[in-house]
Amino acid sequence: MLRALSPTEQRGVALGFIMKEQRETAARATVSTPSTPRVESLKLHVNSYVGREGEPLLRWLVEVMPWRASKELGNEFRSRAEFLDLQQGKHDVHAYAQRARYLVSNIVTNPIDEATKVVTFMKGLKDGPVKTFLFREYPSTLESAITLAMQEEFSLRQAKLHANVPRPMPRPMVKPSGGPEPMDLSSATVAGS
What we know:
The chain is mainly alpha-helical. The protein has a domain at 72-163. Helices cover 55% and strands 0% of the residues. It has 7 helices and no strands. Helix 6 crosses helix 7 (142-163). The chain is elongated, with a radius of gyration of 38 Å.
């Protein structure tokens, strides 16, 4: 049907269709129950800076700054959620502590209180002697909890290292069987004296 029309007429038909759809959508929006408007996400495309001649760095930075700001909007919320659900998993205590520190450092506007930080850190540790030690000591700050956990893990590694060192076995005494006996030199004297 549209193929028979000229390009100008095709544009007119398409424009009429779009206008009709917009009117119907607006009419439905006024009739429907009010709800909170959903924020539509904004996708920004920023070309990478290559440094070619004539490519201004300042222009690239002007493009990058809004992109970076939009990335950081949900960062604090994500960091809070990730920290509160943080688990040690297969990581050692040091890597787990570094991740916890990083996530806590991202939470600025409404910081988490120290008791929650400590409990969340201790709860996320693997079950074992480090976690048991921390629950026995119950530190008051996140940094003291991290320090105690790393010291305890170090102590455990040292204990395992020394436990796995093979001990030298005493050499068995071989009793000569019917052969010559070794000479006892304790009662020997020097000749000519």
